[in-house]
Amino acid sequence: KSFTFHHIQLNISMFKSTIIATLCVGALGFAPQQSPSSSSALKAADFSKEVGVQAPLGLFDPLNMLEDADQERFERLRYVELKHGRIAQLAFLGNVVTRAGFHLPGTIDYEGHTFDSYPNGLAALFGPDSIPSGGLWQIFAFIGILELGIMNPDMASNMGVFEPEFRGDLRNGIKHGDKFAWDNFTPEQKLKKRAIELNNGRAAQMGILGLMVHEQLGGSIPLVGEM
After folding, report:
1. Which residue in 91, 81, 64 sits closest to 21, CA to CA?
2. What is the pLDDT of residue 12?
3. Which residues contact 38 (CB under 8 A, 6 or more apart)?
4. How far is the C-alpha of 3 from the C-alpha of 22, rounded, in Å?
């Protein structure tokens, strides 16, 4: 199947804005914070001790998104970063698994096309060999349902299942006795695990963006294989 330089340019332009937006959000958590202006009417909160602010960079806010921000705005941005990191981890692993030759069994439509008959990565969503448009809209609709209902940070509290300890606390339902597994950790262990998840998400965001770029460049990379 033909693959031209013009095709590369079109695909790169499609996700260029996504790369920029993701990097801006992912930039929230690392290097030195600017001192608030003395002319500010309200003193901005100190976020230098928050989860995810780690050596060697500390708090990183190159776009000044936290300038004069309060705790509520920080927690909103942190939740967005956490969510993007979780999505990126799933996306990266999805690329690794499908490029290794593992696909869902059965057919994807009534015409009998199998899951493994479609390309991997972005080519499965955009381009001449992509999945049917109906399937793409189903994916978007499913994501919308998760975003507005199931993965809503206030869902668990509103349903009385448990009281979230932080935005993004969407426990998996596993219990030890009458308590959630998360409740068996000490406060120090909880902070450590939250920091690990944030860092894994940051790495995955860079990883999936790297895969998107390499897919357009072609070639082969370790672990993932042929792009």
Report:
1. 81
2. 46
3. none
4. 27
3-state DSSP helix/strand/coil % of the chain, to nearest 5: 50, 5, 40
Could you tell me the two tokens for 64?
């000044």
Helix (H, G, I), strand (E, B) or coil at 54: strand
- Number of Cβ within 10 Å of residue 92's Cβ equals 21
Give the tokens for residue 62.
């190159």
The CA-CA-CA angle for residues 197, 145, 105, to 5°, reads 80
Q: 215 pairs with which residues across the strands? A: none
Cβ neighbourhood burial of 48 (10 Å; 0-12, 13-18, 19+): exposed
pTM given for the model: 0.72
Return the number of other C-beta atoms located less than 10 Å from residue 65's C-beta: 14
Tokens matching residue 83? 């969510």
Nearest to 3 by CA among 137, 132, 136, 121: 121
CA 89 to chain centre: 6
**Partner residues linked to 114 by β-bridges:** 107
Strand locations in the chain (E): 175-176, 179-180, 220-221, 225-226
Q: What are the tens digits of pLDDT across the range 115-155?
A: 999 999 989 988 899 998 888 899 999 999 888 877 776 66
Token code pair at residue 66: 């936290």
DSSP class per residue in 177-198: TTEEGGGGS-HHHHHHHHHHHH
Whole-number Å distance between alpha carbons of 3 and 219: 13
